[in-house]
User: Which sequence fits this backbone?
């Protein structure tokens, strides 16, 4: 997470320097065209590295993967699998990968194992409650289009303007 935030700060810093240099003798449309890859890079970095997470609730475990999130009641988790990533086996729904908990060198297997132990502890301690079942929802919505759509629009505006000589 620290590396991702640092990379985003580096992208913003590079863009500030680039825009400052272009302010003297560059057109605003060219500056927009140069801004769009940075916006897209910030969005992709956020989507891949900051958006996936897990959180513990009172009755359910929230798994926020790249484009979907799941609310999994503790009592419906039948097993935990995976050597390099955590995979939940949910009764009636099959295997559910957890994108935020892989055993990559930077995140480590210890974090994944700690979450797995906590899941098993909560599964043993909870009882089913009405209205707190399994949920799966897509996260493609208003915040998600705010990254790629303006980046693409700025890129197209800048490239069209530069092709017409503005």
Assistant:
């Amino acid at each position: 997470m620290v590396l991702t935030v640092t990379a985003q700060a580096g992208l913003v810093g590079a863009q500030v320097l680039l825009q400052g240099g272009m302010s003297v003798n560059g057109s605003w449309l060219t500056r927009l065209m140069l801004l769009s890859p940075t916006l897209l890079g910030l969005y992709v970095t956020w989507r891949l590295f900051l958006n996936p997470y897990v959180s513990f609730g009172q009755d359910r475990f929230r798994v926020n993967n790249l484009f979907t999130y799941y609310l999994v009641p503790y009592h419906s988790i039948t097993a935990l699998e995976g050597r390099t990533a955590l995979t939940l086996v949910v009764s009636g729904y099959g295997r559910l990968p957890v994108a935020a908990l892989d055993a990559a060198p930077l995140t480590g297997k210890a974090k994944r194992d700690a979450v797995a132990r906590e899941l098993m502890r909560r599964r043993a301690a909870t009882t089913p409650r009405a209205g707190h079942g399994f949920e799966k929802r897509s996260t493609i919505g208003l915040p998600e289009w705010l990254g790629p759509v303006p980046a693409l629009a700025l890129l197209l505006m800048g490239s069209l303007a530069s092709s017409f000589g503005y």
